[in-house]
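Our consortium's second objective concerns turning raw sequence data into structural hypotheses that experimental partners can test. To show how far this objective has progressed, the report includes one record in full. It was chosen at random from the queue rather than selected for favorable results. The single chain below, 210 residues long, was entered without modification.
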Amino acid sequence: MQLSAVLAFAAIAFTLIAVPGPDWAYVLAAGARDHVVLPVVGGVMAGYVILTAIMVAGVGPLVAAAPATLTALTIAGSAYLVHLGIRVLARPGGIERSGATGTALAASRLGYLRRGMGVSALNPKGLLIFLSILPQFTRSENDWPLPMQLGALGIVFVLICAVVYIPLGHAADRVLGARPGIARRTTQLAGATMIVVGLALLGERIIETS
C-alpha cells in the first residue's frame, strides 16, 4: 500500500479525531470524574475496530444504502449518547473505589470498556466517516486487495485515537481530577455535550428522512 496514501489519510484522521465530539466528552468525563482512562480509551478503540471490520466485510456500503437501517442506527446511537449523558449528569462528583474488591474493580473496568465501545461503535457519524473517507484512499491498482487496504486504514484511525485520547484522559485525570470544582463542571459540560450531540444526530436524521 502506498505510504503517501496512508500519510494523507492519517493527517485527515488526526484532524477529525482532534475535533471534540462524543468520544472526547466521554473520555473527559471518565478521566475527570472517575480517574479511569485506559479502559475507556480501549473501549473507544474497540468500537472503531468493529466499524473497520464492517468495512472490511463489505457490510458498510449495504448499511449506507438502506435508509431504514441508517435510521435505526441513528436512533440507537443517539439514545445511547443521551443515556450516557444523563448518567454523567446524575453523578458528576465521581465514585469512591477505595474499598472495592478486585472483582468489583474488574467489573467496573469492563463496564467502562463496554460503554466506550458503545460511544464509538454506535456513533452514526463514525460509521459515515468510515463509509465516505476510507474508500477515497484506496487504490484499485494497489497490490493489496481492497479489504486489506480498508483494514489497514481503519487500524491507522484506531491508533491515532490512542495517540489523542490517552493523553487527553490522563490530562483530565491529573489536571482536572486534582481540582474537584473544575472537574465537576467539566464533567457536567461533558454530560450535557453527549445529550446535545445525541439529540442533534437524531434531529438531523429526522430532517433527512422527512
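The partners drew two points from this record. The two ends are 42 Å apart (CA to CA). Residues 51 and 121 are 6 Å apart (CA to CA). Both points have been shared with the crystallography group to help prioritize constructs.
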